[in-house]
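Hey, resending since the last one bounced:
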Amino acid sequence: MQKINVNGIEFAYTRHGDGTPLVLLHGYPLDGSIWSEVVPLLTDRFDLIIPDLRGFGESTTVDAPYTMNTFASDVAGLLDHLRFEKAAIAGHSMGGYVALAFAKLYPDRVTGLGLISSQVLADAPDRKQGRYDTADQVAEKGIGVVVEAMTPKFTPDERVRAFAQSVMEQQKSNAIIGALKAMAEREDTSSLLADFKFPVVLVHGDEDALIPIERARELKNAISRAHLVELKGVGHLPMMESAEETAQALRYLG
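The structure tokens again:
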């Protein structure tokens, strides 16, 4: 794990392999370790850059409010540090929201986009309020409320579920609170789709209980040339539940 200072935080990341730069962004409320099973399947094709998003894993954060654009700016700062003008960006769930924000802010820096168990839609009003309510609960009671609620929803795979729970239990309250509020305020990025000139890969499990597979199908309809991989019997963590298929899909970005 390496660390740099960017945007007032200590930003942690790992780097593996050689080839086309590919940034892998984890979802909420996890960290970069969720990519561990796809890493050895991609190092022959990609220079993999795997950060812990601000507050998660070994990265720090601030208590002031921030947005998906802030997360994206952190990633841009990391690429600047590594002297990469351009890279492919792939994100899982919340990491997909960050990837979309990056594509909006820095379109000339994106060589490919991967959305794994993610979507372009903003939160509906009730979902948005629910995130703020959860943030208040975390502030009052700690991260246990999120761990208890999220663990059974991640996947039907008991091995992967246990791993996800262990990762969540290591996260910090301020990271979870900050991410919840940032997700609640995120933009609908549907309008970006027509401008995407780079390869787009969509990976989604048909048993995803958090973001339904219909979101990926809608994206495929909006971007006809996008490469969609639907994974049967897979939940919200395809990079662990179906590592080989996920890695094969990501190869379209290189």
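The chain has one domain: 2-121+188-253.

Sorry for the duplicate.
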